[in-house]
Amino acid sequence: xxxxxxxxxxxxxxxxxxxxxxxxxxxxxxxxxxxxxxxxxxxxxxxxxxxxxxxxxxxxxxxxxxxxxxxxxxxxxxxxxxxxxxxxxxxxxxxxxxxxxxxxxxxxxxxxxxxxxxxxxxxxxxxxxxxxxxxxxxxxxxxxxxxxxxxxxxxxxxxxxxxxxxxxxxxxxxxxxxxxxxxxxxxxxxxxxxxxxxxxxxxxxxxxxxxxxxxxxxxxxxxxxxxxxxxxxxxxxxxxxxxxxxxxxxxxxxxxxxxxxxxxxxxxxxxxxxxxxxxxxxxxxxxxxxxxxxxxxxxxxxxxxxxxxxxxxxxxxxxxxxxxxxxxxxxxxxxxxxxxxxxxxx
Length: 346
Hints:
Strand content: under 5%
Structural class: mainly alpha
Oligomer: single chain
Low-confidence stretches: 133-145
């Protein structure tokens, strides 16, 4: 019968308290590194529990932009801390390949928490600027080159930022001391509603200071991480796109176009082309430098060259050459090819 009973889902208070406790255990861990598997297991479990709690709060619609802090029940104040706790646990992840993704996610959680506190007017602080829009007090391109005036405003901004950080540190220490004196009394269940309310308001004020400090550190780390990624991309070898040569069909070289038409390839599967056609094709494909078309006389035999020279002399009306040519032609008429060769007859 026990096997048929559905497992009761964890209650919302249990999800928050267990996730918060795991964060405290990670912060106070005596392990030499936060990358130890046991520590990272707590980080993963804590993130999972707090994300479940955040979904539960959203489904119950506990908070609204149209209500004041006094309208929130004292028992529900602690759920305002969920985004800050999620941001803190997200920062505990140590996957270097996803570090930029993790710090961006943590920053978004801290900003959600600060905006929530701003809506309920808890504490006095200014929302940090987004990374894309730098602080107006910081020197930009328009003020950095403004000479002494730009330098002076930069120094004033640095001094005011340092002073604000010192004030936040003092307030955080004061709040932590008050919380330490109230924690045991509240957790024992003997505290009254007003004391419980004061305890969680102090917790929210403490996490406001923590969130502001974390966002400042995150913004500095994001600059370093993005610069490192840009350096890796710049140092990577360029990807050269090599165009593959088109495969050439097999062919047979012929002396001239007429020979290609008459003889063919000997079988129908191969194409034929002249030497000039082949050379021009190679030049168009940038395979061979264009050094001028091949001279057709380079393919002529010595006998044909002599015949061509004789024809030119005949055309030039050379009397001596003309008589020799006619005598040679007459001799060939009366002496057939092979005439007088009697030695090789059987």
